[in-house]
TrEMBL record:
Keywords for this protein: Flavoprotein, FMN, Oxidoreductase
Domain of life: Bacteria
Gene3D superfamilies: 3.40.50.360
UniProt source species: Leifsonia shinshuensis
InterPro entries the UniProt entry points to: CE1759_FMN_reduct, Flavoprotein-like_sf, FMN_Rdtase-like_dom, NAD(P)H-dep_FMN_reductase
Full protein name: FMN reductase
Domain annotation NADPH-dependent FMN reductase-like: ranges: 10-160
Keyword Phosphoprotein set for record: no
Pfam families, per the entry: FMN_red (PF03358)
Keyword DNA damage: no
Coiled coil: none
Single GO MF descriptor: FMN reductase (NADPH) activity
EC number: 1.5.1.38
């Protein structure tokens, strides 16, 4: 099938870098360029949308505290919902992906990204944080039931001068294109959608869903069965 027979692939680039210039954004941009190049070699075109999470900071507290989504958050969710593929990059702070990155994806509904092809990437000042992508970021995206590319991309300060980084970027880009070409998201949703436990807003961990007056919760608060909790 040629590019004239189909619509372009929609790729959303989620960048959690906050500095200017940002190595995290630089990694995201390089991945996006290589995805476009890999797709073009197969006769496809790509529409890339950049989503800089720092622009959502004014709306993040409301989304976390009450589930209220402002206009920028709503637009970001709509972009992710219609994406054929996602590139998600984060800076590493204190041995984990940045709070901005984690908080954004924790706000999303659990069903939003089912079977979405995703490349994961991270940047840090030292190679000692290299496992953050696969140990922490990949596990969160597994919970969201995405199709993460086998190759994740980590870049420390010294990696930018190493040709091996470019090879990893190319490999991850190729994997994302192949996943998009297979139509894996649509095929999984078409055959398995009804078998998921759909809970709108479920990713927020809503405390209102907990029965604070139950015997178990009274015991947890230091009370006794059938009696009030101790203050």
């Amino acid at each position: 099938m040629t590019s004239t027979d189909q619509r372009p692939f929609r790729v959303v680039v989620v960048n959690a870098g906050v500095s200017d210039p940002s190595s995290t954004k630089m990694l995201a941009d390089r991945l996006a360029l290589r995805v476009e190049a890999a797709a073009q070699r197969d006769g496809h075109t790509v529409e890339t949308k950049n989503l800089d999470l720092r622009e959502l900071l004014p709306e993040l507290s409301g989304a976390l505290a009450s589930g209220h989504l402002g206009p920028r958050f709503t637009a970001a969710i709509e972009a992710l919902a219609s994406a054929d593929g996602i590139i998600a990059t984060a800076p590493v702070y204190k041995a984990g992906p940045s709070g901005l990155f984690s908080s954004f994806f924790q706000v999303l509904d659990n069903d939003l990204l089912i079977a979405k092809p995703v490349i994961l990437g991270a940047t840090a000042g030292t190679a000692r944080h290299a496992l953050v992508v696969d140990e922490q970021m990949r596990s969160m995206f597994a919970y969201l039931r995405t199709m993460t590319a086998p190759t994740s991309v980590f870049a420390s300060t010294e990696d930018w001068q190493d040709n091996a980084l470019g090879k990893r970027i190319d490999r991850a880009a190729r994997e994302l294109v192949v996943l998009m070409e297979t139509g894996v998201e649509a095929r999984i949703k078409d055959t398995s959608w009804n078998s998921y436990q759909h809970e709108y807003g479920s990713a927020g961990g809503n405390e209102l869903g907990i029965d604070l007056g139950s015997d178990l919760m009274r015991l947890a608060a230091g009370g006794t069965l059938g009696g009030p909790a101790r203050s």
